[in-house]
Design goal:
2 domains, about 35% helix, 9 helices, alpha+beta
């Protein structure tokens, strides 16, 4: 992938035939629709997809994965979530059909979370941030101290027996999930599990007698609360009664198991 040729800009350029990152290109573009003041130009998923060189369907799937848009009950079109509205997403409707869609401010292609998520989906760059924060350094220390040596039924490798039990339960009960999914925020924070259907995260809190771990748990809790992410919390006492505990907790987010 090429790097923007503008002076002082080292951003990645998505299309091989382009030489400038979107922000730099926009400054030098003379088309009327792109020289209006910030916030006056709105990008549909089609326009946004052209910037990232994907079709509108793929673009919407990525925005949905980010938790910025969702399908309404009638399953036609898209609506912005609270997180999407926080990013400037706004609802429009198609002519007489009234099918909703979401438009975005012209600054959205520069959004760091969107750029990072798109890169992870397309494999165009490493998902690990180059500059390590204190939080990411602590997380890397945790990964080294507790390697993923437990193999689950679905093939996931996890870091503890507790996580293995939870992962196996989710898989056995047909709950599609991700392990150690990065939260769609600027901070470098990873969840234990993520259930895409209900857009809910699952955290297992163990080792509560460890002061460092307890502090990290409180920080993660605050992060979930700060960004309004839905969270299911499990502890040691839940492990032997997952059949009783997890179905009830998942049902709160419209995820039912047989």
């Amino acid at each position: 992938m090429k790097v923007c040729k503008a002076s002082g800009c080292n951003a990645k350029v998505w299309k091989d035939e382009h030489s400038l990152f979107y922000k730099c290109w926009k400054k030098n573009n003379t088309k009327q629709e792109y020289v209006k003041g910030k916030g006056d130009v709105w990008l549909t998923s089609t326009k946004l997809g052209k910037i990232f060189d994907v079709n509108s369907r793929k673009m919407n799937l990525i925005l949905d994965e980010l938790g910025w848009i969702y399908k309404p009950r009638h399953k036609k079109g898209w609506l912005p979530t609270k997180h999407g509205k926080d990013q400037g997403g706004m609802t429009k409707k198609i002519g007489r059909s009234g099918v909703p869609y979401v438009v975005w401010p012209d600054s959205i292609p520069e959004n760091k979370v969107l750029v990072r998520t798109f890169a992870e989906h397309t494999g165009t760059q490493s998902s690990t941030p180059q500059s390590a924060t204190a939080e990411s350094a602590e997380y890397n220390d945790f990964r080294k101290k507790y390697p993923a040596n437990y193999r689950c039924t679905d093939g996931h490798y996890v870091r503890s027996r507790a996580e293995m039990l939870i992962d196996n339960w989710l898989y056995t009960n047909g709950v599609v999930h991700a392990y150690e999914r990065r939260l769609p925020i600027k901070e470098n924070v990873y969840s234990d599990f993520y259930v895409r259907k209900g857009k809910v995260y699952i955290e297992f809190w163990g080792m509560m007698d460890n002061e460092k771990y307890a502090r990290r748990m409180r920080q993660k809790r605050d992060t979930y609360a700060k960004h309004g992410f839905d969270l299911i919390e499990l502890n040691d006492s839940d492990l032997e009664i997952l059949d009783d505990v997890l179905p009830k907790k998942l049902l709160k987010y419209n995820i039912s198991v047989d």
